[in-house]
Specification:
Number of domains: 1
Shape: globular
Distance between the termini: 30 Å
Oligomer: single chain
Radius of gyration: 19 Å
Order of helices and strands: HHHHHHHH
């Protein structure tokens, strides 16, 4: 795998675009929103604010939670906010609603799988996680298994969203339970290797005994 900066940018942008596509597939499946969107919808129902405003507001709150975890935003954090929504809107514009249950189930499964691949790609670019994934990686850096952390976050957010009045369906539960193990499996396989730094001048590598 290439460790060059342009290759990592390609990995980042591809991951973010695919993430937006995956959310579009889940919306068109119409079998339940992902956990964070259940929370956004519940907050919108309680406050009367537009859901898009609350998506940004929740992202800001989550970024504040990075402070005690000593997480730092990167260019990938900013790109996450800018690109995912565009990819989502494009997907919804190109993909019409699906009527058959079999088609909707297929979209649901494809959306969950693509979401896991997209998350692993943009995290693996090592250019900064999105606000919500930074919370996951910050907790994982404290020694907790990343799959367990992701599942716990998804379940807690889902419960809060449901209590606030967000819409929950079978796809919501499947996403919450499946995304953690899926990300845990894919992240090590899709992460770009750390760049190899040259040894300082005058330092030689010892030969193996």
């Amino acid at each position: 795998m290439s460790t060059s900066l342009p290759a990592r940018w390609v990995r980042l942008l591809a991951g973010l675009a695919l993430f937006g596509v995956s959310v579009g597939l889940l919306v068109r499946a119409d079998l339940g929103l992902a956990s964070w969107d259940v929370l956004h919808q519940g907050l919108a129902a309680r406050t009367g604010l537009p859901m898009g405003v609350l998506v940004n507001g929740v992202a800001l709150v989550v970024l504040l939670l990075w402070i005690p975890l000593r997480q730092r935003p990167g260019v990938g954090t900013v790109a996450n906010v800018a690109l995912v929504g565009l990819a989502l809107d494009a997907t919804l514009a190109l993909l019409p609603p699906v009527g058959s249950l079999a088609g909707r189930v297929s979209l649901l499964l494809a959306g969950i799988l693509l979401n896991g691949v997209a998350t692993a790609l943009y995290l693996g670019a090592r250019l900064g996680p999105g606000p919500r994934d930074g919370l996951m990686t910050g907790l994982a850096a404290r020694g907790l298994p990343i799959g367990r952390v992701r599942t716990l976050i998804e379940v807690v957010v889902l419960a809060l969203g449901w209590l606030l009045g967000g819409t929950v369906g079978p796809g919501t539960l499947l996403f919450a339970l499946a995304i953690g193990p899926l990300v845990q499996y894919l992240v090590p396989r899709l992460t770009a290797p750390a760049p190899v730094r040259p040894a300082p001048a005058g330092v030689t590598t010892p030969c193996p005994a």
